[in-house]
Specification:
By secondary structure, this protein is an all-alpha fold. The protein has a domain of 108 residues: Fumarate Reductase Cytochrome B subunit. It is built from seven helices and no strands. The model has no long low-confidence stretch (mean pLDDT 90). GO terms for molecular function: electron transfer activity; heme binding; metal ion binding; nitrate reductase activity.
Length: 183
């Protein structure tokens, strides 16, 4: 029962909440989501951190999407072995993951360490920054060290299939039942 809720019902509830929430915010409270501008206060860390974070996160999200959407049969058909695929995914993912983390660290450090920037920051801003930092750190550690903890697990035979099935409106909760917690 829990598997069906977590892996069949909940993804659609989250997606519906995302859409309805955005429509509601746009219609009734357009300008309430903003961070107060601090670009005039200290520009160097802002520029470096912002570029590293945004370029990195585009590739991190894009890499996850491509890794989940492209079927294993495709990479096998073009002659790419599982080992080669894994090395490329971990290598590129690690570089952009670390880039994103460094960018977020610089932005968070700037927000906390500069008095004038901190004065413009809400507690919510700092909590979001710290949550993003923790999420990025856990993702990097999972990528670098997690595969040694769960040898032989291939997410493309379970998580990827389930992910694609969500968009076809027929997700199979059984594919996710035995996924290691690390993933």
């Amino acid at each position: 029962m829990w598997n069906n809720f977590l892996w069949v019902i909940l993804p659609y509830l989250v997606f519906a909440s995302f859409i309805v929430g955005h429509i509601f915010r746009y219609r009734y409270d357009k300008f309430s989501v903003t961070a107060k501008s601090s670009e005039l206060i200290e520009k160097r860390q802002l520029m470096i951190g912002s570029i590293l974070f945004h370029v990195g996160i585009l590739f991190v999200v894009g890499g996850h999407f491509v890794g989940l959407v492209i079927p294993k049969s495709f990479t096998e058909a073009i002659g790419m072995s599982e080992h080669t695929y894994h090395i490329i995914a971990v290598g590129i993912g690690s570089v952009f993951g670390v880039m994103t983390f460094i960018g977020m660290f610089l932005l968070t450090y700037r927000r906390i360490s500069h008095k004038s920037v901190r004065r413009l920051s809400s507690s919510g801003d700092i909590i979001v920054n710290l949550t993003l930092l923790l999420t990025l750190l856990l993702g990097i550690l999972s990528t670098l060290f997690g595969t040694k903890e769960v040898p032989g697990f291939d997410y493309r035979e379970s998580i990827s299939i389930w992910f694609r099935q969500i968009f076809m409106f027929r997700p199979d909760a059984n594919l996710m039942a035995e996924i290691p917690l690390l993933f």
